[in-house]
Amino acid sequence: MELKVGARSDVGMIRSGNEDNFFAEADDRRGVFVVADGMGGHAAGEVASEMAVQIVARHLLSLTSVLDRASAEKLAQAMRDANRAIYDRMLAEVDKQGMGTTASVLVLSDNQFLIGQIGDSRIYLLRDGALTQLTKDHSYVQEQVDAGLLTPEQARYHPYSNVITRCVGANESVDADIYEGEMKPGDVFLLASDGLTGMVDDRRLQAMLLARSGPGRIVDALIAEANGRGGLDNITAIVIQVVGVDTPAVQAHG
């Protein structure tokens, strides 16, 4: 497997501190990527997102293949463990009240992807020129869109667009949405906090991901675009270009 990766976080134009955190590590066997957008104020949100990233990454770095049937459960358990650790710390420390974080997790190996999702950070896939949002936001406006009460365009500019309905650390337990699928050479994955997706619409994201440049340059361009449109929140982006995949060996039946 061969991946090219770019990743960066930026404070944006308005905020004084950065409550986003990310993790990106890839070798020739697998890649592990996490974006977390903390909430609860500067002292707490930063802690929550950092804890989520560290705990999830620590669990998943021992994964060698997402083809293993236990890998999806391992991912779900990693996110449950992060939730419990953040929740316990919130209870123990008075300045951490209301602490929580989103977590969007992508694991790549062989010719497959595995995703764990809590909150409204997002994972997209650009394939054959078409951009697809692989994750679903856990947000008030997404629920309104699902119910047919808002259009996606109305949701984008709704005053409650940043209100999330599920996060890591706010409650004693939380369940992640798990997604699985096939990965192909030429695929481009984007993990992003809402500081990017709230500023830059999907059509523009698609055009920028199609650029014939390296992932680091694309990440820089995405962050510059979000800042150019106001940079109202912290901005985090990870871009993964899939150069080659490993086709799993097929077991011969005799």
Helix share, percent: 25-40%
What is the average of the pLDDT values? 95
- H/E series, N to C? EEEHHEEEEEHHEEHHHE
Class derived from helix and strand content: alpha+beta
Give the end-to-end Cα distance, rounded to a whole number of Å.
29 Å
How many beta-strand segments? 11
Give the CATH topology: Phosphatase 2c, domain 1
Unreliably modeled segments: none
What is the H level of CATH, i.e. the homologous superfamily?
PPM-type phosphatase domain
Fold and architecture overview:
- This protein is of the alpha+beta class and 254 residues long.
- It has a single domain (2-244), classed as Phosphatase 2c, domain 1 (4-Layer Sandwich), CATH 3.60.40.
- It is built from 7 helices and 11 strands.
- The protein has helices spanning 42-60, 71-92, 140-146, 152-156, 194-197, 202-209, 215-228; strands at 2-10, 20-26, 30-39, 100-101, 103-109, 112-118, 122-127, 130-133, 177-182, 188-192, 235-244.
- Helix 1 runs antiparallel to helix 2.
- The longest helix has 22 residues, at 71-92.
Write the layout of secondary structure elements.
Blueprint: E1 2-10, E2 20-26, E3 30-39, H1 42-60, H2 71-92, E4 100-101, E5 103-109, E6 112-118, E7 122-127, E8 130-133, H3 140-146, H4 152-156, E9 177-182, E10 188-192, H5 194-197, H6 202-209, H7 215-228, E11 235-244
Antiparallel strand pairs: 1-11, 2-3, 3-4, 3-5, 5-6, 6-9, 7-8, 7-10, 10-11
Helix pairs in contact: 1-2
